[in-house]
Structures are given as C-alpha cells and as structure tokens.
Specification:
The chain contains 8 helices and 11 strands. The chain is of the alpha/beta class. The protein has 2 domains: 118 residues, Rossmann fold, CATH 3.40.50; 95 residues, Arc Repressor Mutant, subunit A, CATH 1.10.10.10. The strands form 3 sheets. It has a 5-stranded parallel β-sheet, sandwiched between helices. α2 runs parallel beside α3 and α6 crosses α8. It starts with a strand and ends with a strand.
Length: 224
C-alpha cells in the first residue's frame, strides 16, 4: 500500500520511514504543509499520516483542503497536540484516526492496517479466497494449508489484488499503489511480479487464482 508521511521533524521521518517500509508500505515524504497538500492532491494514497504543526501550512488547513477537493485517502493525524478540542476538530474536518505523540510503532502500524481494511470494506485481518488464506497482520499466506513464502514486494502485490478480488486492476493502478515516487516505472515490472506470484500460488494448485482480463488488467479470482 502507498502511504504519504507529512512530518517535518527529520529524526522521526527517518525512523518512521524505515519502520513503515519494513511493514511493506511504499512511503512518500512531505516535510511542510504546502508540499503535503500538493502531494496529497496529486496521488491516490491508500493512507496519509499527517502532523498538525507544520511549516508553511498547518495540518488542519491541509486536511480541510484535501477533503474540500475530494481526496478520499484515509488520514491518520499524528501529533503532539493532545487537547480534546484538537482531536474533535481534526476528526470533524475529515480525519479517520488521531494518535498523539509519544507513541509506539506497533500501535501506529495496527491503526494503519485497520484503516486500510476499512477502506476496503473488510473488518477481518484474514483474507480468504477459495483455498488461499492471507494473514494481513503476520504478512503470511497458505494455500490448501501449505505455507508459501513471498518476498515483501510479492506479498504487497498479492494483498493489493486480494483487496480488489474479482475486479481487474490495470498495471498503472498497481504501480501507483505499490511503488513510491522514487521508483522508476519500467514497462514490464508488474508483469514480472505477476509471473512470480503465479509460479508460487497457482503452480500445482487448482483452480488458478491469478487471472488476466485482456485490456483491463490482472485480478484475483472472486467467489463466482
């Protein structure tokens, strides 16, 4: 999943970026409110972490602009402001969650996972597609009870397809949600990783789960 971190305190930016990328997020960074507002409008992030006390433009103003201009990304406010009125205002302006500093990374990650699930209208951390079982907390999967090892990038692609099961997603859409702004988009990288997944998930099993719809993209078999 692709995430935007809007935070100006560099030591926190570095530690959060590392922790989020280890969790499998593709992370873009903005270090002031104006940059954050611009990036939030330009890309369809799955989730955004937003500080309130930012240079150039404060976080609440950024959030208000996003919501007024139709940004649907889940927004988690992460701030040292712990007054009830700040929490109420942030939530009323369209934030989906509010976490105060100091915090534990484990709690932040759990809240982000919950926001991603909510964005895909699911409440369980276990995704089941036919005989495939994906644990979105442990980042593990089994097919027909057999454990299958994936690289972080393979897992991220599979999880994205699972959240969109039964609906084709284009190569461009996959790229937008799984790779950060520093990655260079090459023409066949998505196809390569789809083939990796097919070799691990479909080879030796029936029915095949990773399908192609010509002209529309790839998808994970639904319940039909």
């Amino acid at each position: 999943m692709r995430l935007l971190l809007v935070e100006d305190y560099q030591p926190l930016v570095r530690s959060l970026q590392q922790g989020l990328e280890e969790e499998g997020f593709a992370v873009d960074i903005a270090t002031d409110g104006e940059e954050g507002a611009r990036k939030g409008l330009a890309a369809g992030y799955d989730v955004i972490i937003l500080d309130l006390m930012l240079p150039k433009l404060d976080g609440l103003s950024v959030l208000k602009e996003w919501r007024q201009r139709g940004v649907k990304s889940a927004v988690l406010i992460l701030t040292a402001r712990d007054r009830m009125e700040d929490k109420v205002k942030g939530l009323d302006l369209g934030a989906d969650d509010y976490l105060t500093k100091p915090f534990r990374l484990e709690e932040l990650l759990a809240r982000l996972r919950a926001l991603v699930r909510r964005g895909h209208q699911t409440t369980t951390p276990i995704l089941r597609i036919h005989d495939l079982e994906i644990d979105t907390v442990a980042k593990t999967l089994k097919r027909s009870g057999q454990a299958i090892n994936l690289t972080p990038r393979e897992y991220a692609l599979l999880e994205f397809l699972a959240y969109h099961r039964g609906r084709p997603v284009s190569r461009d859409t996959i790229w937008t949600h799984l790779y950060d702004e520093k990655e260079e988009n090459t023409s066949n990288v998505v196809d390569v990783y789809i083939n990796y997944l097919r070799n691990k998930i479909d080879k030796g099993f029936d029915p095949p789960l990773i399908l192609t719809r010509r002209g529309e993209g790839y998808y994970l078999r639904g319940d039909e």
